[in-house]
Design goal:
With about 280 residues, the chain is an alpha/beta fold. It has two domains: about 100 residues, N-terminal domain of TfIIb; about 150 residues, Beta Barrel (Barwin-like endoglucanases), CATH 2.40.40.20. The chain has ten helices and eleven strands. It has a six-stranded mixed β-sheet. A three-stranded antiparallel β-sheet has the order 1-2-3. Strand 8 and strand 9 form a beta hairpin. The longest helix has 10 residues.
C-alpha cells in the first residue's frame, strides 16, 4: 500500500521537512515538504539520496580522526577497536577515513599539492572586474556569514544559544556607514532586485569598504513558524534579498554571495548626488 509520511531530513543540522512516499518497505519518492515552516519545500540533493541509504543492505559509517583525543591516529582513540567490531558484528560495513593516511597520496595533481588558484579562476578575474565597474552608484556587495552559536536556524530555538545582544545584524564598514548615514545599532533598509528587509546595523572594521554582510538562517517571524524562542529573536532572512536568477557564470551554479544591493537608513533615501562613483 502506498503511504505518504512527513519527516525531517537528518543528514545535517538544517533538518529540512520532507515527505516520503513508501510502498510497503520500499521508498518510492522523496520531496520537500511545502508545509514545513522553515524549509518551505526546499531540499538539497543529499535528501533525495535518503532512499538509497534506506535500501542499501550495508551500514556505512564515516569516521574521521580526532587529534584532540587520539593524537591524530584513529585506531588509538578510546574504545575505537571495540566500536568497530560491534558495528561489523551487526552486519555493517565501516568506511574509515583517516586524513593522515590519505594525503598527499590521494592528490592527483602532478606536484601532489592542492592548487588554490586554478587557471580557470584566474582567467575569470577580468570579467569580475568588469562586472564591478558596471555596477550603479550606491550599489554594494552583499555576502552571508555563519556564526558560532548559529550552525543553522533550528539552534535559534534554544534560549541558551540566542541570549545576549542581537546577532542578526548587517555588518558595515565605518566608511560606508558614514557615507550612507548609517548608525551602529540603528535600523537600515537593505534592498536588492529580489526584495528588501529592515535590519539593525553593526559598524565594524572587519568588513572591507563596499562589502556588507547579513547572517544565514534567520527570519523566524513568518506566519506558521512554531518556534517559540526563535520567533522572539526573529531577525530577517537573507533569502528575501537573494536573487534566484543570479548565477555564477564560471561554474553555472546559483550564486548565493556577491549580490548587488543598496542600503539606506530608515527614513528618506539619500540623493543620488551623495553616492560615490562605482570603483573596481
Amino acid at each position: 500500500m502506498v503511504v505518504t509520511h512527513h519527516h525531517s531530513c537528518t543528514l545535517c543540522e538544517a533538518t529540512c521537512g520532507i515527505t516520503v512516499t513508501t510502498d510497503g518497505d520500499r521508498v518510492v519518492d522523496i520531496r520537500g515538504d511545502e508545509h514545513d515552516p522553515i524549509s518551505r519545500g526546499y531540499i538539497c540533493p543529499k535528501a533525495t539520496a535518503l532512499a538509497d541509504l534506506h535500501h542499501d543492505p550495508d551500514l556505512f559509517i564515516c569516521i574521521g580522526a580526532n587529534p584532540l583525543v587520539s593524537n591524530g591516529s584513529l585506531m588509538t582513540a578510546p574504545n575505537m577497536r571495540r566500536r568497530l567490531k560491534m558495528l561489523r558484528g551487526r552486519g555493517g560495513r565501516v568506511v574509515v577515513i583517516d586524513p593522515r593516511r590519505r594525503l598527499p597520496g590521494r592528490l592527483y595533481t602532478k606536484d601532489r599539492k592542492i592548487h588554490l588558484a586554478p587557471g580557470e579562476y584566474l582567467g575569470d578575474l577580468d570579467r569580475l572586474r568588469g562586472r564591478m565597474e558596471a555596477w550603479a552608484p550606491g550599489e554594494l556587495v552583499l555576502i552571508g556569514r555563519r556564526q558560532l552559536r548559529s550552525s543553522n536556524s533550528w539552534l535559534h530555538n534554544s534560549a541558551r544559544l540566542v541570549k545576549g545582544k542581537p546577532r542578526c545584524t548587517l555588518l558595515v564598514n565605518p566608511a560606508d556607514a558614514e557615507r550612507y548615514g548609517l548608525a551602529d545599532g540603528e535600523p537600515a533598509v537593505l534592498s536588492s532586485a529580489a526584495g528588501q528587509v529592515e535590519v539593525p546595523v553593526e559598524v565594524t572594521d572587519e568588513m572591507m569598504p563596499g562589502v556588507i554582510s547579513l547572517p544565514h538562517g534567520w527570519g523566524h517571524g513568518r506566519p506558521g513558524v512554531w518556534l517559540g524562542v526563535a520567533s522572539k529573536h526573529a531577525g530577517v532572512s537573507i533569502n528575501d534579498v537573494t536573487d534566484e536568477q543570479f548565477v555564477d557564470e564560471l561554474t553555472g551554479t546559483a550564486a548565493l554571495s556577491g549580490q548587488r544591493v543598496t542600503v539606506r537608513a530608515v527614513g528618506p533615501p539619500p540623493s543620488e548626488a551623495a553616492w560615490p562613483a562605482a570603483s573596481s
